[in-house]
Structure formats: structure tokens, C-alpha cells
Design goal:
Number of strands: 27
Number of helices: 2
Order of helices and strands: EEEEEEHEEEEEEEEEEEEHEEEEEEEEE
Largest sheet: 5 strands, antiparallel
Shape: globular
Helix content: under 10%
Distance between the termini: 27 Å
Length: about 400
């Protein structure tokens, strides 16, 4: 996520103007939250909202005043630093474990495990166990820090490239920056899954699952297919969405620094080979279209709105545009604007039923809603501005 700057005054969702005859609505369920950056569930009816300054809040039909956990004394904020990720163990009801990633007071990335308190509405602040610490002294930018458990039961963590003028870390296998990591947290503090792709590669760090990312700001697993969807923030030209199929054995190179989307940086010295050596995004959009920083989302797999089932929703943090994508009749993914509002969309989340939620950095959490009669997006192509699919290598 790029630097947000001064937070704009919060506007109610009714003031925003959706496109396409108001097919998509965002229903505000929580407000007056200080810089929220993530929302998730703990395999029950509650939602948990993480704020950049280090507080984790509980939404249980309404937002509880007392935080679930307050890490503000441990967290350096703000800009692109802060509390950046939270996820709950698949067996949270049994073991009470959840995991957070944050930037500590020295500017490094910390992955830590906590345990819930006895009442379930407060965490045990003394249960902190540092799982992994990643030095991050290049610049105060590009941390990423999203966390999620995959269908395989392993913990995945995204890391940014560290920012600054040194772009090589994302493509170095001896660095954890600019990567997707895959950890077995059933061991203390963690073990390396034996199927990780670089386990037996000399000088490579075995935690790495995939590499070549600039700032992968939010990823998700399709709960139906297991595919991994990754939004990666671009530099000056293109924002991109990447997909790793569930059948993957890992090890993909998604191209940064040489590739920014489908554009090859001439000064990287790899343009002759990069298009065949790296994985192209499934689609991209240009900054000239008004965007500046992609927020990766989810494929909708809920039951409440079958009219958008299977669409992948994502957003641009700066423009307030909500996009939805699906394959057309030929199988080519086509992405369209479906909502334009005042929100600064910093993250997405699901509840246990697969219904989607949207986090507004200026202070709110919204539920994604559609109206009866919503038509499939490929039939609305004439009414919406198309964003060109990425060129495949």
C-alpha cells in the first residue's frame, strides 16, 4: 500500500455514487475506526478489524468498545508501517491461536503468535511468541505483511521488496523481501514444509514459496478452487493481479523488478528473457486510468448474491474504484468498474459464509451488496469501461 497521506473526512456510503444503475452497494456496518487496514473472522460469527496503529477490534453485531488486543506500544506507525496483517488458526476454537504481522519500533517486520483470553473477547497480551523477524532497513516502505492460512493448512505471509533504490531483493532467493512465504506453524516457532520449492536449493531461503513481488498488498485463496490471488502494487505505470493455481508446486517468479505488470524495465537488463522467465499477471490497469495502488480482494463465493458468484472483486486505493472480473465466453478474464465511491479501500475480507467485506481506510467497514436483477458483467461490457487484460507471455 502506498502512503495514504492525511485521512480524508469520513463520508457515509450513501453519498458515494455507484455506477451501472446502482447494481453494487456498500452497506456500512461499522464507522469511526482509526485507520483500519484488515478485516477477518475467527471461524465464528464475529469479525475482527485491525487498525494500522496496532489495535484489533471485535465486531459482534456491533463494534465493541474494548479492543481484542492493543499492540500500539509495540508498533511503529504510520505511512506504510503499522499493524499490517492478522489471521486466525484454522483450529482457533481449540487452541486459541492467532497470528499478527507488524512493523516494530526499529522498523523491522515481526510475525508473532498470540492466544485468546478466557472470555474470547480479549487476547492474552502476555502470550506473545515471535515466530519470525525480517530486517527491513532499506526504507519505511513496501512491507506488505498480509497473512492467511492456505487450504493446505500452512501459513502464508506476503512481504514487500523493502522500497528504497535497491530493487534486487525481490528476485534474490537469499532475501525474504518481495516474497510469498509458506510456513508450518504447527511447530514452535515454525517448520519448513518439505514441499516448499527451494528447500534443497543452495543459498536459497527455504521459507520462500514464490518471489518477484514489489508490494503484494492483499492476497486470498479461492475457497472453492484453492487458487491464490495476489494484488501487487506497481511503481509508476501498472497495477497487477496475479493468480497462482491450486495445482502449483510453488517457485514462480512474478517479475519485479524487471517486470512491472507486462512492462519490462529496460534498466533491469533482463528484457530479452523476462517475458518467458516470469509469470504474467492475469490482468492489470494503468495509472493513466486514474489509479495508483491496487488492493487485492476475493472471488465471491457467498450464497446471498448468486448473481455475482465467482467474480473476483478488487479495488484501487486512491481512486475509490471497485473492480470485478470474470472470464468471458472465450475464457479470457475481463475486468470492469462496478462501483466508484469516496472510500479509500485498504483491504477486503470474508466471513465464514463467504460474504465479502470492504475496509475503508478513512474509518469504516462495509458489506458488499448487490440488487435483484444484476446482470453478468460480460453483458454489461458496453456500459462499463473495460480495463485491458494483461498480455500473456
Amino acid at each position: 500500500m502506498r502512503r495514504a497521506g492525511a485521512a480524508a473526512a469520513l463520508l457515509l456510503f450513501t453519498l458515494a455514487t455507484p455506477v451501472t444503475a446502482q447494481h453494487i452497494f456498500l452497506e456500512q456496518i461499522a464507522t469511526k475506526i482509526d485507520q483500519p487496514v484488515a478485516v477477518t473472522h475467527a471461524n465464528d460469527a464475529r469479525l475482527f478489524v485491525a487498525t494500522q496503529r496496532g489495535r484489533i477490534l471485535v465486531f459482534d453485531k456491533q463494534l465493541r468498545a474494548e479492543p481484542f488486543l492493543d499492540l500500539s506500544e509495540l508498533v511503529r506507525c504510520c505511512g506504510e508501517q503499522g499493524l499490517l496483517g492478522i489471521t486466525f488458526h484454522p483450529r482457533y476454537a481449540e487452541n486459541g491461536f492467532f497470528f499478527v504481522s507488524y512493523v516494530d519500533l526499529e522498523g523491522d517486520t515481526v510475525l508473532a503468535r498470540y492466544r485468546a483470553g478466557l472470555d474470547g473477547f480479549r487476547a492474552d497480551a502476555q502470550s506473545r511468541r515471535v515466530i519470525l523477524m525480517i530486517p527491513h532497513r532499506l526504507s519505511p516502505m513496501h512491507y506488505s505483511g498480509h497473512l492467511a492460512f492456505g487450504p493446505d493448512g500452512y501459513l502464508y505471509m506476503s512481504t514487500g521488496d523493502g522500497g528504497g533504490d535497491d530493487y534486487v531483493h525481490a528476485n534474490r532467493l537469499d532475501s525474504l523481501l518481495g516474497k510469498m512465504l509458506r510456513l508450518d506453524v504447527e511447530h514452535d516457532p515454525y517448520a519448513i514444509p518439505p514441499s516448499n520449492p527451494f528447500v534443497d536449493v543452495p543459498d536459497a531461503l527455504p521459507e520462500i514459496w514464490a518471489y518477484g513481488f514489489r508490494n503484494p498488498w492483499r492476497f486470498s485463496f479461492d475457497r472453492d478452487t484453492g487458487d491464490l490471488w495476489i494484488g501487487d502494487v506497481g511503481q509508476d505505470l501498472l497495477e497487477e493481479i496475479n493468480v497462482q493455481p491450486a495445482s502449483s508446486s510453488g517457485g514462480e517468479n512474478y517479475g519485479w523488478y524487471g517486470m512491472e505488470g507486462t512492462y519490462c524495465h529496460e534498466d533491469s537488463g533482463i528484457c530479452g528473457s523476462a517475458p518467458t522467465a516470469t509469470v504474467a499477471p492475469i490482468f492489470e490497469y494503468a495509472h493513466e486510468d486514474g489509479g495508483c495502488a491496487v488492493t487485492g480482494g476475493y472471488r465471491y463465493r457467498g450464497k446471498e448474491f448468486p448473481e455475482v458468484y465467482g467474480m473476483y472483486f478488487y479495488a484501487d486505493f486512491c481512486s475509490g474504484v471497485l473492480y470485478a472480473a470474470e472470464p468471458d465466453e472465450e475464457g479470457t478474464w475481463v475486468t470492469q468498474e462496478v462501483y466508484v465511491g469516496t472510500q479509500r479501500i485498504s483491504s477486503f475480507g470474508e466471513d465464514t459464509d463467504g460474504e465479502l467485506y470492504i475496509v475503508d481506510y478513512t474509518g469504516g467497514v462495509y458489506a458488499l451488496k448487490t440488487i435483484v436483477g444484476f446482470d453478468r458483467i460480460r453483458r454489461l461490457r458496453g456500459a462499463l469501461r473495460s480495463v485491458r487484460p494483461a498480455r500473456q507471455p
